[in-house]
Design a protein that fits this description.
- The chain has 342 residues and is of the alpha/beta class.
- The chain is built from twelve helices and seven strands.
- It has two domains: 27-179, Beta Polymerase, domain 2 (2-Layer Sandwich); 195-340, Poly(a)-polymerase, middle domain.
- A five-stranded mixed beta sheet has the order 1-2-5-4-3, sandwiched between helices.
- α9 (195-218) packs across α11, α9 (195-218) crosses α12 (309-323) and α10 (229-242) packs across α11 (251-263).
- Residues 49-88 form the Polymerase nucleotidyl transferase domain.
């Protein structure tokens, strides 16, 4: 992976040197934040202005992903925008609408509008999925990918508990259409975390970005999966909680702890979950020998459920390769970090 700076893993460094690396190279600067803000603002104003020409009425737009949660990497984060469309009906009928032609028609209308009328020349339509219109934004030297996800705000039609109750009787396929409306709870859960946690998140995401290409080139089959950014965010939060919620931490220890939580079975932490929005005991998950990380915004979403044996082996290999890097030479895992010691 091409980089503008020397890999932080290539030499032994102190805690303060790693913090300096995060500050200089991983934390978004004003230019990046401003460019992302301009892109989102342009899209929001366009979506509100075009309502007389399209059969939709936009209720609101929220930023999801790392940008909305405050965990973005400098110059490396894409933009997710959930576009809430006005819809008359309760929770069940709204979910049915999102899983049928209603949502697909809206996605196609937005794609056609942006692609054919050229109202926003700095945005290029690059495709669509069953959930989103995919765009590329380019303004000067700044480029990023943008996903527009139309949805119905089912959390405005009932409490989270009422939404989860309605989801309980749905098939896994239909539950997928509730993901976009629940993004706002994901944002709420992560955005309020302490700056020390968000910097650990950035460092762990950078680790994945740097090592994934090497691992797939040397070891992993093409279909192997690596942890998503959201899964890494949640593991960083859990590690911070497990070591007593410190106001500062050595990010080298934090990264090693995250890798340990992902790969080691002897910590007896087979399930990571929270009770911020629901009682996990009311929504049993399938038992597994591997780590299970439940989405705090969605009791039915195990973020590790798609990992097969090849994926777990790839993650193990990635950890082994990482710990051979000079950055970890002589690193001690003294209490409270000793719970993650190999």
């Amino acid at each position: 992976m091409a980089q503008r700076f020397q890999s932080v893993f290539l030499r032994a460094q102190s805690e303060s040197e790693v913090n300096g690396f995060i500050s200089r190279h991983l934390q978004p600067d004003e230019d990046f934040s401003s460019s992302c803000g301009v892109a989102v603002d342009r899209l929001v104003r366009y979506l509100h202005s075009v309502q007389t020409e399209l059969p939709i009425k936009v209720r609101s737009v929220i930023k999801g992903g790392s940008l909305g949660k405050g965990t973005a990497l400098k110059n490396k984060s894409d933009i997710d925008c959930v576009v809430f469309i006005n819809y008359d009906g309760g929770i069940q009928t709204s979910i049915q609408a999102m899983s049928g032609p209603w949502l697909q028609d809206i996605i196609e209308e937005i794609r056609h509008s942006l692609g054919n009328w050229n109202p926003l020349p700095e945005f290029e339509v690059v495709g669509k999925t069953i959930h989103a219109v995919k765009l590329r934004y380019k303004k000067g030297s700044f480029t990023c990918d943008v996903d527009l996800l139309p949805a119905i705000d089912i959390l405005k039609k009932g409490t989270p508990q009422q939404v989860y109750y309605a989801m309980k009787s749905l098939s896994p396929h239909l539950r997928e259409y509730c993901s976009a409306p629940l993004v706002q709870l994901q944002v709420e859960f992560v955005k309020c975390q302490q700056p020390v946690v968000k910097d650990l998140i950035r460092f762990v995401k950078h680790w994945k970005n740097e090592y994934s290409e090497k691992v797939f080139r040397e070891f992993a089959p093409p279909h192997a999966r690596l942890p998503s950014s959201y899964l890494l965010e949640l593991l960083c939060i859990k590690v911070w909680e497990m070591v007593g919620r410190p106001s500062s931490m050595d990010k080298r220890q934090g990264l090693k702890a995250v890798m340990s939580l992902l790969t080691e079975r002897r910590h007896h932490v087979h399930r990571v979950e929270w009770s911020a929005f629901y009682d996990p005991s009311k929504y049993p998950l399938k038992a597994t020998d591997h780590l299970s990380v439940r989405d705090p915004a969605n009791p039915f979403n195990d973020l590790c459920s798609d990992f097969d044996a090849f994926s777990w082996n790839t993650i193990d290999y990635m950890k082994i390769k990482t710990l051979k890097a000079p950055l970890f030479d002589g690193l001690r895992m003294d209490p409270p970090w000793n719970i993650f010691r190999d």
